[in-house]
Amino acid sequence: MALRSILIHPDPRLKKVCDPVADLSDELRLLADDMLETMYDAPGIGLAAPQIGINQRLIVLDCVREEEGPPRPMIMFNPEVVASSDEKNTYEEGCLSIPEQYADVERPTDVTVRWIDRNGAEQQESFDGLWSTCVQHEIDHLNGVLFIDYLKPLKRQMITRKMQKLKRERARG
Q1: Percentage of residues of the chain with pLDDT beyond 70
Q2: What separation, in Å, do the N-terminal and C-terminal C-alpha atoms of the chain show?
Q3: Residues near 8 by beta carbon (within 8 Å), at least 6 away in sequence
Q4: 160: Cβ–Cβ under 8 A, 6 or more apart, which residues?
Q5: Cβ neighbours around 25 below 10 Å, total
Q6: What are the extents of the domains in the chain?
Q7: Which of 23, 55, 101, 119 is such that its CA lies 20 to 30 A from the CA of 90?
Q8: 90, β-bridge pairs
Q9: Annotated catalytic, 138?
Q10: C-alpha to C-alpha distance for 147 and 140, rounded to whole angstroms
């Protein structure tokens, strides 16, 4: 397994709609393992393939905090929300591609998601709380949507300028 570099906003690859995974290969399973390792190392609770420059519909997540119990890593190929509640919830969201920036985002409280697991089997599960927010956030990435796209233009521009400055500083080393 290998750690992958996480793209920082603004990057055009983060705004593209990803291609469906047509066929599960060992290469894609290895990619998913790398993504989990990268996510845990960051540390984060979710990571989408476009965040590491891969234009495929693949996300990984694990919202179990250490004190809550054993990790529950999830790998989802071609995830899609098949049902969502009318009730909304607001969570302060962050993103590994937009480091150290957080904002409140309103999303459906509960969602049901269908996906293909690493063995090629179709899965479906309902999520609530942090899991619901996280899975929606990661699926947004597959559609070229970032959490800051939910914010008012001024706040979004302010965060984008901070990220541009961060990228310049990192480029100087």
Answers
A1: 100
A2: 26
A3: 97, 98, 99, 163, 166, 167, 170
A4: 9, 10, 148
A5: 10
A6: 12-172
A7: 55
A8: 106
A9: yes
A10: 8
Instruction: Using 50 as the pLDDT threshold, list the residues of the chain that sit under it.
Output: none
Q: How do 74-84 and 88-95 pair as beta strands?
A: unpaired
Q: What tokens were used for 125?
A: 């599960």
CB neighbour class for 141 (10 Å; exposed up to 12, middle 13-18, buried from 19): buried
CA distance 80 to 82: 6
Give residue 79's Cα distance to chain centre. 11
The pLDDT score that the predictor gives to residue 86 is 98
The residue type at 85: S
- ω into 43 cis (within 30 of 0): yes
pLDDT tens for residues 48-97? 999 999 999 999 999 998 788 899 999 999 999 999 999 999 999 999 99
* Cβ atoms of residues 127 and 89 within 8 Å: no
Residues 161, 104, 17: CA angle, nearest 5 degrees: 65
Alpha helices, DSSP H, located in the chain? 26-41, 129-142, 153-172
Superfamily holding 12-172: Peptide deformylase (3.90.45.10)
